[in-house]
Amino acid sequence: MELNELEIDYGATLIGPVSAELPAGGVTVLRGGSGSGKTSLCLAMTGFLTPTGGGISGDEGVLVPQNPREWLNPRHTVDEVIDRTARILGHSLGADERAGVLARALLGPELLQHRCGELSGGQAARVCLARALASGIDTIVCDEPTAALDASNAARFARLIRTLAEAGHTIVWATHDLPLVMATNADCGFVSLDHRQSELRQPDHRQPDHRWPDHRPPELWQ
Question: Entry's PANTHER family (predicted)?
């Protein structure tokens, strides 16, 4: 995926222009101060938000949201979530394949029959990641996926992201926890945002971060 002078205009607030090449098999971190637009950029890269300028080359990514419980129907089983995602995107997964997707997200097959409302925070985050893997899309865009997790689950998720990058996935990770990212992904690239311009550059740990509200995709939630 490549971002080409991408802009998102909220009237008084302009995000971009953002230009960056996001390499396959690598982790690219989105960072910026409050209101810099990390979540909006994640939504644009995954088709939930239309940029007002520039464009994206390559296929859209699939989103792993920062508040996974709000993106999972509590009445649905994990099996239904994985199966529905695959079918919406034009392919089907057998029972063994759905269990395999969960295994890649470090979850056991017994979780398939659990309802999403029964999941812990760490489980919900990894189910959203499993859903992304079930989509068959190579670029995985993570919007602060560890924000609501305790230290142990956050570290486990970070190691999992590293494994997926090593398997060839393009990983985009918006986060406020740079030490966590650097501990498991020391060779990652950075896209630094502010209200006027964005560029791919090396990390600067001094700049604070923020969180934006979620946008639930109704066709997957219902």
Answer: D,D-DIPEPTIDE TRANSPORT ATP-BINDING PROTEIN DDPF-RELATED, TRANSPORT ATP-BINDING PROTEIN
